[in-house]
Amino acid sequence: MTAEEIFAGESENVEFKSEIPAKSEKYMKTVVAFANGKGGKLIFGVENGTWMVTGFAKEEVFQRMDAITNAIFDSCEPKITPNIAVQEIDGKAIIVVEIVPGMQRPYYIKNQGIMDGTYIRVAGTTRRAERYRVQELILEGTNRSYDQLEREQTVAEEEITAFCEKMYQHALELANPDRQEKQIQKVSANQLLSWKLLTEHDGVYHPTNGYLLLNGDTTEFPDAAIQCAVFKGTVRDIFITRKEFTGSIYEQIEDAYNFVLQHIDLGSRIEGIARQDYYELPVKTIREMISNAVCHRSYLSPGKIQVALFDGRLEVTSPGMLDSEITIEKMKSGLSKIRNRGIAAAFSYMNIIEAWGSGIPKIFREAKEYGLREPEVIDMGSDFRINLYRKKAVTDQNGVIDPRKRDTETDTNDTKADTNDTKMDPNEEAVLTILQRNPKTTQKELCMKLGVSISTVKRLTDTLQKKGRLYREGSRRNGYWIIVAPKE
């Protein structure tokens, strides 16, 4: 750990402690949270906030290291073996405790029990895991997929045949033009068994969660729906229209996809002597964003998929934390980890998904080809979001609209903004808009209007204060926000 890394402050995987707490539980929460997530480092001997190195006396440092090792080994279940090292910074000894991501999740504090003693990291803070998140960690630790879990009810063979026929017809509808009908084979019960969408005991078939979701039997999955809305402006303040789609999850994709197409601009271009219609956004990307959300969301996490269209962007939000092995950069490079294996196999057969890991790179590539701003992929802690940015269509002298053509004036302004250190993203602009209307807006109210987590709101307001666009007057409870005009 270098001095520069220390002065960078705490992060998602780094936490500082000036002293070793007498009660080990005070730092054991972070130990199990690191093991349940991407891993991390606990640094003892550095003061949080000031990043001042307090350190330990050299004659006691090894005794302290042994005490930490024993406390972790005795307090956590399953056992966690930390990597502990001593390091000298500015002539003072600090203790670096590294916790690697665990394979036997969930990890928890033994005397608190699995449901109360399991902790996770969210946006750089340690939190007690909610019940649904503990269930997800149990599945991760046993290498199981929630959609492949068996249900008690049974399914008759004629119902399975009807289910397979619906999948087959959907596969035909979405097949590439160069893929002949004869190349798509009908699936059978045996194929569903191999995907673990069905199980079979003594000749009796049982559905799994994935089968029920694909079949539209979502009574026990009230959050398995897509909420669509069109908002006026750039925040979730005034909506123009909204609709919720339920039923079979692959039919939900089509409904949400068509909803977006109905509410974005449709233009045209002259190609040779023909007039060719174009939507302002790449339609394959729209479908990909919605399909990814349905396929990879957590069906244990509370909340519905949200598809929101604003003046400047299309926003698709899916419930569930990212897998601990996946980062935004890895996703952009094409790395993927399938959360719902049975559903993913069915989506692949039905031509909803083309290839594993290709979704995010394809979204970026198609946005670039369309002349759009680079999409934004956001890890919101408990949710995951993709923003696809809109650009006004351009009309030529003949009144022909080409949504893909870039507006020269807009491009110039974008270029200037890129060279400006105070450039703001749409969420920052949205915060300022809301606070301009009501300077006493609370962080909770900002969460509701923006549709983001409290940690995201805190990050946005902190960033705006650092940029000199916002500052707080008065106390946290009775104060208000003051917006500072940008410098010329």
From TrEMBL:
Origin superkingdom: Bacteria
Residue ranges annotated for the Schlafen AlbA-2 domain, each copy included: 10-129
Keywords per UniProt: Coiled coil
A Pfam family of this chain: HTH_24
Region feature Disordered, mapped onto this chain: 399-424
InterPro entries documented for this protein: RecG_C_sf (IPR038475), Schlafen_AlbA_2_dom (IPR007421), Schlafen_AlbA_2_dom_sf (IPR038461), WH-like_DNA-bd_sf (IPR036388), WH_DNA-bd_sf (IPR036390)
Listed Basic and acidic residues bias regions: 402-424
Keyword Metal-binding belongs to the record: no
Entry-linked Gene3D superfamilies: 3.30.565.60, Schlafen, AAA domain (3.30.950.30), Winged helix-like DNA-binding domain superfamily/Winged helix DNA-binding domain (1.10.10.10)
Classification via SUPFAM superfamilies: Winged helix' DNA-binding domain (SSF46785)
Coiled coil, from the record: 139-166
Protein name: DNA binding domain-containing protein
Organism: Candidatus Merdiplasma excrementigallinarum
Record lineage: Bacteria, Bacillati, Bacillota, Clostridia, Lachnospirales
